[in-house]
Amino acid sequence: MMASGLVNLLAGRKIRTVFLPVSGEETELRDAGARLMVYLPDRPYWLLVVLRQVACLLDRNGGRLSVLILSRSSASWIWRSLQKLVKKESFLGGVRLAPSDLPCSSLAALMLRDWECTVSLKKQALEEEQVSGIQPEGMTKKELDVLVDSLAGQAIQEQARQRGVSHKTLYVQRRSGLKKMAHPMLYEKTPLVKNKQKGPLPSGTVSPLSPFEREFVHAIHNRQVYPVFQPIVDGGIQLKGLEILARWERNGQIMQPAEFLPQIRSGYAWRLLTALMLQEAICGINQYRGAYYFSVNIPAAISGSESLIEMIKQLSTRLINPFWTDRLVLEISESLNLLDRHESRFLITQLQHLGYRVMLDDCFSRSSVYFPVRAVRFNDYKLDRKVVEDAQYEPHALALIKSLAFYCDLTGSHCVAEGIDSREKLSLLRASGVHLFQGYSISQPVFKFELAQMIADLKKRETVQPIA
């Protein structure tokens, strides 16, 4: 049924399609440029049967196949299992993976273009392991065979007689195979609890990935989710830092964070996105030799996760100069209630002890929980764009901004204002004691390849009158 559906997506494209039987272990694809698309089902029996068939096809075709596996299973588990099932790891070079529940339009686009341009199964699996902190054991051929026969209803005694081995050997193989099938990311398609709660799940929980989240994760692996950079300048338009923001090119449309981030609940998806942004920050710090800081937003869902600190420490080993850790700024939203999040408070303190700067984002926003400066001392504070907007005509908002700017002066912190979209706003906030500024009238977010030109343009504008 799945194969027929995939063929229907290609209808009218003049692409010749051939169905391969699941049981056809002798199949060899002789057509030059043949591409194999495989649906890996969720049900354990068919998952294992099809996985075994994929390994056989790769072996018999000497690794010359370009294979796209459609599955909701873990990339890491599939990779580690195929490693043990094929004769040579090099046979896996042409294997790719995509979620089987991608929208039809995305699946059709993936099938029609050259999927060899997408990230390999190996790279996707290694990224998954780095972010999740889990490296599964792959399924061996003996374990797979005994599990397939057991799931088909064949008794261990009958299998032992056919294979000429002891019952104990097969019991051990079946048990070890079942343990490997229990990889925590293999069955994220099903909720772990009956009562679905809104908002992010507790830190450390293996949360189920929704179809949207699997599409999002796939987009991150294939760099369809990508970073853009918005400059942060002082009153003379001298560049001091850059905030890294995410964009998603989905079905030919560029999506803003507000369009997709509210639908993300899985801790794994958040960690993967954060890892991508942190990697870009480290690259930027190295590229500009520590001249500018790069800031990354830390999602509330993982703000108390120990794996976050390990991820940051591991990525920071790539810094050319270990003293550039203060060039990495981590933004924590003020909407996070730190009184109820001991883990988050501890994480912030740890990060500061390691030399990183931590910024309180969205200060005085409409969704503000409270101002947590007694619970945690931050290195920098960023005003929410709404309070910046209101300061032009609301004395109370302006008083809040002045009080924060004065507090920052007393404590050696920086006060940053975002949402600067006019010369009048900049003048008002400079007069109120704000130190740094970010907004569209300074520069819109730019692509990575546009950074050098944007920095050059800002240097030309360094003046007492910052916005012409």
Give me some keywords for this one.
468 residues; alpha/beta; TIM Barrel; three-stranded parallel β-sheet; 12 strands; 41% helix; elongated
How would you describe the overall organization of this protein?
This protein has 468 residues and is of the alpha/beta class. The chain has helices spanning 2-9, 44-60, 75-85, 104-112, 121-132, 141-151, 156-163, 167-181, 211-221, 257-260, 267-287, 306-316, 342-353, 385-390, 395-411, 423-431, 451-460; strands spanning 35-39, 66-70, 95-98, 225-233, 239-250, 253-255, 293-297, 328-333, 357-363, 380-383, 414-417, 436-437. The protein folds into 2 domains: 2-132, no CATH class; 211-460, EAL domain (TIM Barrel). The strands form 2 sheets. Strands 4, 5, 6, 7, 8, 9, 10, 11 and 12 form a 9-stranded mixed β-sheet that branches. A 3-stranded parallel β-sheet has the order 1-2-3. Helix 2 packs across helix 6 (141-151) and helix 3 packs across helix 5 (121-132). The chain is elongated, with a radius of gyration of 26 Å.
A few lines on this structure:
With 468 residues, the protein is an alpha/beta fold. The chain is built from 17 helices and twelve strands. The chain has two domains: 131 residues, no CATH class; 250 residues, Alpha-Beta Barrel (TIM Barrel), CATH 3.20.20.450.
- CATH H level of the largest domain: which superfamily? EAL domain
Strand content: 5-15%
C-alpha termini separation:
63 Å
CATH class of the largest domain: Alpha Beta
Helix content: 40-55%
Overall structural class, as computed from helix and strand content, comes to: alpha/beta
Q: Tell how many strands the DSSP assignment holds.
A: 12
Spans of at least 5 consecutive residues with low confidence: 187-206, 464-468
**How many DSSP H or I helices?**
17
Instruction: Assign the CATH architecture of the largest domain.
Output: Alpha-Beta Barrel
